[in-house]
Specification:
It is built from ten helices and 16 strands. The chain has 416 residues and is of the alpha/beta class. Strands 9-15-10-11-12-13-14 form a seven-stranded mixed beta sheet. The protein has a six-stranded parallel beta sheet with strand order 3-4-2-1-8-16, covered by helices on one side.
């Protein structure tokens, strides 16, 4: 029986790890073509950084690429004298990119007709489907046919609306920003933390103001074990308010027993996808509007070393956090004047800054995507945006749902 041909569109961490898992089943089961326009694979936005201060926000013991071998990454680090054999260490994100590359590099074949992993450095601009498979068109005009297409295109950065905006992920994001100039960062999450660490490492001495609606800063990890939680005690399918009450009660009970809230949050990891799937639609919307920011600062935490640097920056008045909403931005010759209103206040304040760095997160509305592959799916009616407008509508198995609410006849999966 001939092996199936899987075409993975996107060569970041998700796409490469998925290709690796498919190929582990053997060349008689799958052969894989990986399409990535960048020269590096397996890194994407998260793991391309060379800054040693940019650490993983998950401990090494939870970062194995092999689900059946949870200590695989820790052993890989120990073999290279990195982090010892400590599962609680937090290594630079670039190191995890090296780990992914070490897994996939031996499988890459560049010869035509390869039975392993074929890497194509180009951009997918269109996807079409039939009853027997998929057809991919590349930017250079080449067409590829396969049995299944897997979208692993990752997240898109926001478009800068004004010249004073800076993209924190751009290779030269710090170019042209004077070291003593005041900066405004939109967003107070982990992207803000990374950008601040980059600026401080380069000797920035001017004030840095980070602003978000709630002004929340991610909490830090501690050396605690995940709490074992039986799925029978979790109120699957309950409303968001009831679920949050249950979670608070579970945290308080664990604290009363001398435990740490982080153990409860980490104990929820195996159940988060099912919780989201079974959450009523209205509760999903309410969660996104009112509870998501609180959940994220507790769930997506900083490494202890990062917490120390950020705490020092705040204590030394080099970094300020503001809970506020922007009212207007007035471009100036050397930056911008920002009018904003602090949370809970009526009067407006103003702030002159040399640049505005948008760390407010990814583009969540697929309707504004600039990705030609996704746009081609929407144009043909082969895909549609989900009801919350935060992603593409898929079934539980990841298969796309078309414009009419059906699964297309072909085989396209959403792997982000």
């Amino acid at each position: 029986m001939a092996s199936r041909h899987a075409i993975v569109i996107g060569g970041g961490a998700s796409g490469v790890l998925l290709a690796y898992q498919l190929l582990r089943q053997g060349s008689t089961v799958f052969r894989v073509t990986l399409i990535e326009r960048r020269s590096e694979i397996g890194r994407g936005l998260a793991y391309h950084t060379g800054n040693p201060d940019h650490l993983l926000n998950v401990r090494a013991g939870n970062m194995s690429a092999l689900p059946e071998d949870p200590d695989h990454f820790v052993r890989w680090l120990a073999a290279r004298d990195l982090c010892g054999a400590d599962p609680y260490c937090f290594v630079p994100r670039r190191v995890f990119g090296d780990y992914i590359e070490s897994l996939i590099q031996p499988l890459i074949e560049r010869e035509p007709g390869s039975r392993g992993l074929t890497l194509v450095n180009d951009e997918c601009v269109a996807i079409s489907e039939g009853r027997t498979g998929v057809m991919i068109r590349l930017a250079n005009g080449t067409r590829l046919s396969g049995d299944i297409a897997i979208l692993a295109t990752g997240h898109e950065s926001r478009h800068a609306p004004l010249a004073c905006y800076a993209d924190p992920w751009a290779p030269h994001a710090n170019d042209g920003i004077a070291g003593d100039s005041p900066l405004l960062i939109l967003g107070t999450g982990l992207t803000m933390v990374d950008f601040v660490l980059s600026r401080l490492r380069e000797g920035h001495s001017g004030p840095i103001i980070a602003m978000s609606r709630r002004g929340l800063l991610s909490r830090a990890h501690r050396r605690v074990e995940p709490l074992h939680i039986d799925d029978a005690e979790i109120p699957f399918g309950a409303s968001a308010s009831r679920l949050l009450r249950w979670l608070r009660d579970r945290v308080e009970t664990h604290r009363a027993e001398g435990g740490d809230w982080r153990s409860v949050i980490d104990g929820m990891r195996p159940f988060t996808q099912r919780l989201w799937r079974e959450l009523p639609p209205r509760s999903r919307q309410r969660f996104l509007e009112h509870a998501r920011a609180w959940w994220e600062v507790h769930r997506h935490r900083m490494a202890p070393e990062v917490e120390e640097r950020i705490t020092t920056a705040i204590t030394d008045d080099r970094l300020s956090l503001i809970a506020a909403k922007i009212i207007d931005i007035i471009p100036l010759t050397n930056g911008a004047r920002v009018l904003y209103r602090r949370r809970g206040r009526n009067q407006a304040d103003s702030l002159d800054v040399a640049a505005i760095v948008d760390c407010s997160g990814i583009v969540r509305d697929p309707s504004v995507t600039t990705n030609p592959a996704l746009r081609s799916l929407f144009a043909q009616g082969l895909g549609r945006i989900d009801s919350l407008r935060i992603g593409i509508d898929v079934g539980f198995d990841g298969a796309l749902i078309d414009r009419e609410g059906h699964r297309p006849a072909g085989c396209t999966r959403w792997g982000r």
